[in-house]
């Protein structure tokens, strides 16, 4: 009987210790804000075209960001070095993407001498614009719950078909 209580209490103690040892800690507000800013930098670089300009740096920055977020959630780890490394990777990515996009942007050249354009020729007499045929499609009526056209709607269908063939 005594062994039974001892075994039960030891099992309960072991379960409590395991649960406490595996629990994640809450990130502080400053860590959350910094990690959100790093994520925003990476997203901005992606919008600027980092996939084409700096794919390696993008992958590295994402990996560092994910690693820093993971380490910030661990209870026994100081995450500040990882957060700094992720922030530096995001800054490098943003800078490289900005430089690449500036290099791809066409250079604006300012002409040194502007030559006035000759005046346009006077407008010639405009040809009359032909008036388009009015296309007033009429309704084509079917019988109620039937798939065939009524006799009075067949001429309307023929007129619409002729118009569509011409145009």
Q: What kind of sheet is the major sheet?
A: none
Number of helices: 6
- Uncertain regions: pLDDT < 50 for 5+ in a row? none
Q: Compute the separation of the termini in Å.
A: 100 Å
Q: What is the structural class?
A: mainly alpha
Characteristic key phrases:
167 residues
State the gist of this model.
With 167 residues, the protein is mostly helical. Helices cover 60% and strands 0% of the residues.
Verbal overview:
- By secondary structure, the chain is mainly alpha-helical.
- Among the domains are: 80 residues; 29 residues.
- Helices cover 60% and strands 0% of the residues.
- Helix 2 runs antiparallel to helix 4, helix 2 runs parallel beside helix 5 and helix 4 runs antiparallel to helix 5.
SSE arrangement:
Elements: H1 2-21, H2 29-48, H3 50-53, H4 55-73, H5 80-104, H6 154-166
Helix pairs in contact: 2-4, 2-5, 4-5
């Amino acid at each position: 009987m005594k062994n039974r209580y001892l075994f039960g209490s030891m099992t309960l103690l072991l379960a409590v210790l395991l649960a406490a040892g595996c629990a994640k800690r809450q990130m502080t507000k400053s860590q959350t804000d910094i990690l959100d800013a790093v994520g925003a930098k990476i997203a901005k670089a992606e919008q600027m075209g980092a996939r084409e300009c700096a794919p390696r740096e993008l992958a590295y920055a994402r990996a560092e960001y994910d690693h820093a977020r993971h380490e910030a959630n661990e209870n026994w780890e100081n995450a500040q070095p990882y957060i700094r490394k992720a922030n530096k990777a995001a800054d490098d990515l943003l800078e490289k993407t900005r430089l690449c996009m500036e290099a791809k942007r066409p250079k604006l050249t300012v002409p040194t001498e502007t030559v006035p354009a000759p005046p346009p020729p006077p407008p010639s007499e405009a040809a009359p614009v032909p008036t388009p045929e009015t296309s007033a499609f009429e309704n084509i009526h079917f019988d109620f719950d039937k798939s065939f056209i009524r006799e009075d709607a067949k001429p309307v269908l023929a007129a619409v078909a002729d118009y569509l063939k011409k145009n």
